[in-house]
C-alpha cells in the first residue's frame, strides 16, 4: 500500500492537470491519493473522471489559515461533503481575498521597479484555478525576470520579504470546525516547516485538538527528523492520526509523488473519523 494524502494540481499551484496527476500516481504504484488543492474543489470532477481501478481517490482541500498573531497555517480538509454551504463559502471568501492580496503585492513590486502586471499573472492560471504567489513567480519567470519559482520565492516572495502581503484566512480552529461540520477530517499540514516562515508553537496544538483536529502531517520533506519526532509525540499522546505526504506540485516544487506516505493503519484510523464513507473508487 502506498498512501499519499497531500497533492496539488493546476487548479491551485501545481503544474499537472488532475488527469495527469491521476495517471502519474497510478503509474508509480500509489494506491490511495488525496487531491488537496488550495482553497478549492475545482479539480475534483476531472480527477474522478480519470480514476481507474486499482487506486482510491480521497477528495479534499488545503485551507489557508492564519493564527490570531499572524502565523500562516495550512489545514488539510479531507472527505468532507462538497455540498456543505458554510465550508464552500469559507473557501470562496479565501479565494476572493487572494485577488486583492495579489494586487497589493504587485503594487509593491512595481514601486520597487519590478515591472509585472496582474494580467500577466492571470495568464499563468488554468481556468478555475486558485490564484497564489506561485502564479506570480511563474509570470516573473515567463517574463525573463527570474530563472525559477524557487529563485522568485527566495529573492522576492518569502514571508519575510518587503513584498509579502497577508490575506484573509480563517483561524485554524475555525477551519477545523468547518471541516468537521461538513463531515470531513482535519489534518494540520507541515506545521513545523520553519523554512517556510514562522511556525506555530507546540502549545498551540492544545487549541487545535480541542477544536477537533484529527491528524498531523508528521512525515514531510520540510520537517527535520527531530521535528517529526516532536509531532509524533504530540499525535501519540492525543490519539491523532499521523500522516506522511509528498505535497506534490508537479514541476512547481522538487517534491516527488509518494516520497512520504501514510501507514495503512493510520489512514484507516483517520478515514473512520469522517461521518460517511467518501473514498472514491471505480
Give a nutshell description of this structure:
38% of the residues lie in helices and 13% in strands. With 282 residues, the chain is an alpha/beta fold.
Account of the 3D structure:
The chain is of the alpha/beta class and 282 residues long. The protein has a domain of 65 residues: Orthogonal Bundle (DNA polymerase, domain 1). It contains 10 helices and 7 strands. Helix 1 links the parallel strand 1 and strand 2. The radius of gyration is 18 Å and the shape is globular. It starts with a strand and ends in an 11-residue tail after the last helix.
Summary tags:
single chain; 282 residues; 7-stranded mixed β-sheet; alpha/beta; DNA polymerase, domain 1
Please describe the biggest sheet, giving its number of strands, its sense, and whether it closes into a barrel: 7 strands, mixed
Oligomer: single chain
Number of helices: 10
Question: Roughly how many Å is the radius of gyration?
Answer: 18 Å
CATH architecture of the domain at 93-157: Orthogonal Bundle
Number of strands: 7
Strand order of the largest sheet: 1-2-3-4-5-6-7
Might you state the CATH topology name of the domain at 93-157?
A: DNA polymerase, domain 1
Mean pLDDT: 94
CATH class of the domain at 93-157: Mainly Alpha
Distance between the termini: 17 Å
Could you say which overall geometry the principal axes of the C-alpha atoms support? Answer: globular
Q: Topology as H/E string?
A: EHEHEEHHHHHEHEHEH
Poorly predicted segments: none
Question: In percent terms, what proportion of residues is strand?
Answer: 5-15%
Amino acid at each position: 500500500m502506498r498512501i499519499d494524502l497531500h497533492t496539488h494540481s493546476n487548479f491551485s499551484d501545481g503544474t499537472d492537470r488532475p488527469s495527469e496527476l491521476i495517471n502519474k500516481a497510478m503509474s508509480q504504484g500509489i494506491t490511495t491519493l488525496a487531491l488537496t488543492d488550495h482553497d478549492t474543489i475545482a479539480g475534483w470532477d476531472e480527477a474522478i473522471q480519470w480514476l481507474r481501478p486499482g487506486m482510491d481517490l480521497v477528495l479534499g482541500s488545503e485551507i489557508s489559515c492564519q493564527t490570531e498573531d499572524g502565523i500562516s497555517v495550512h489545514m488539510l480538509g479531507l472527505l468532507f461533503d462538497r455540498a456543505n454551504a458554510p465550508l464552500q463559502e469559507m473557501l470562496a471568501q479565501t479565494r476572493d481575498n487572494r485577488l486583492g492580496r495579489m494586487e497589493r503585492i504587485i503594487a509593491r513590486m512595481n514601486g520597487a521597479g519590478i515591472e509585472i502586471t496582474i494580467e500577466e499573472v492571470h495568464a499563468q492560471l488554468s481556468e478555475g484555478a486558485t490564484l497564489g504567489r506561485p502564479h506570480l513567480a511563474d509570470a516573473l519567470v515567463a517574463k525573463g525576470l527570474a530563472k525559477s519559482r524557487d529563485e522568485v520565492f527566495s529573492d522576492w516572495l518569502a514571508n519575510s520579504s518587503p513584498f509579502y502581503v497577508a490575506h484573509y484566512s480563517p483561524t485554524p480552529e475555525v477551519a477545523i470546525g468547518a471541516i468537521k461540520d461538513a463531515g470531513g477530517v482535519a489534518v494540520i499540514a507541515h506545521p513545523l516547516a520553519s523554512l517556510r516562515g514562522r511556525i506555530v508553537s507546540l502549545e498551540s496544538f492544545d487549541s487545535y485538538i480541542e477544536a477537533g483536529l484529527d491528524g498531523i502531517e508528521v512525515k514531510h520533506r520540510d520537517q527535520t527528523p527531530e521535528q517529526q519526532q516532536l509531532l509524533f509525540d504530540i499525535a501519540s499522546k492525543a490519539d491523532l492520526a499521523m500522516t506522511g505526504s509528498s505535497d506534490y506540485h508537479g514541476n512547481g516544487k522538487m517534491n516527488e509523488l509518494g516520497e512520504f506516505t501514510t501507514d495503512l493503519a493510520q489512514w484507516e484510523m483517520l478515514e473512520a473519523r469522517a461521518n460517511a464513507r467518501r473514498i472514491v473508487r471505480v
